[in-house]
Amino acid sequence: xxxxxxxxxxxxxxxxxxxxxxxxxxxxxxxxxxxxxxxxxxxxxxxxxxxxxxxxxxxxxxxxxxxxxxxxxxxxxxxxxxxxxxxxxxxxxxxxxxxxxxxxxxxxxxxxxxxxxxxxxxxxxxxxxxxxxxxxxxxxxxxx
Amino acid sequence: xxxxxxxxxxxxxxxxxxxxxxxxxxxxxxxxxxxxxxxxxxxxxxxxxxxxxxxxxxxxxxxxxxxxxxxxxxxxxxxxxxxxxxxxxxxxxxxxxxxxxxxxxxxxxxxxxxxxxxxxxxxxxxxxxxxxxxxxxxxxxxxx
DNA sequence: TTTAAATAGGATAAATTTGTCCGAAATAAA
DNA sequence: TTTATTTCGGACAAATTTATCCTATTTAAA
Lengths: 144, 144
Description:
Protein name (chains A, B): RrF2 family transcriptional regulator
Strand order of the largest sheet of chain A: 1-2
Shape of chain A: elongated
Number of strands of chain A: 2
Number of helices of chain A: 8
Oligomer: homodimer
Distance between the termini of chain A: 19 Å
Organism (chains A, B): Psychroserpens luteus
CATH superfamily of chain A: Winged helix-like DNA-binding domain superfamily/Winged helix DNA-binding domain
InterPro entries (chains A, B): Tscrpt_reg_Rrf2 (IPR000944), WH-like_DNA-bd_sf (IPR036388), WH_DNA-bd_sf (IPR036390)
CATH architecture of chain A: Orthogonal Bundle
Radius of gyration of chain A: 17 Å
């Protein structure tokens, strides 16, 4: 469904959000430990999220990654997915046709539209706040 | 969503089904031309489909790939996807956790279940017959 | 039985994704 | 201002996926 990079990016974002509620910045080392991901690779993905203004980085001593508290509830999963994987998952044809639309549909065009709309709607209606909160209360987990 | 191999596999299966209704066997060359896919790679995927008894191959002169007419309506997309990509798309965690279940869920566990159930149901309820028919009547297409 | 035609399958290569390493640049605190 | 700490960014490496090529094997027809 998503690339590894995107999975790590979502998990990292949730972890950063949770810590930002506690006023704590976190390092790639800490993040990768807590979400169980390769550190250097995760650091690369964090750079992408910074470039897309989804998370904030602070260099130097006592630096790290954070998200403005006010911002957390406004960040949707769709933004993270699009920043890392692009919008292919919504837009590209389920059977890989370069051009697939209502006028020139692949054999599963209609059937896929509803699936993808469902996914899109879900990602657009899920924000980091609720996900971070579930981590905080121990309802859900970021690693096995 | 699916791998390239799986996209080619589905498109190839539909094309073979359509031709089998006309009593015609088709070669990897013809298939790859008609679904616009790399020939040798497509041939490899056909071998996988043969191994899984989804399509039939006939060697030698006047050979090629076909599907028993009686069989076409019973082949579901889910069988093709599982043969090529496995059942990860249904079963594996949306955020990549090795172990993700109701007792130990990832943050998007519940939200993903409905999406994936929808996909699974769709794949399990779509058979090659209806897809091949749409190609035959020019309602849908296998290449751009 | 011979031959031509077709799939099967192994070896290999290219492209993409995933992952690592290390020095440069920035920054807060001493 | 200096120093320690931290992210940034480029180069590189490994793994996986995608793709190609060539020979062996099979098989139906002549």
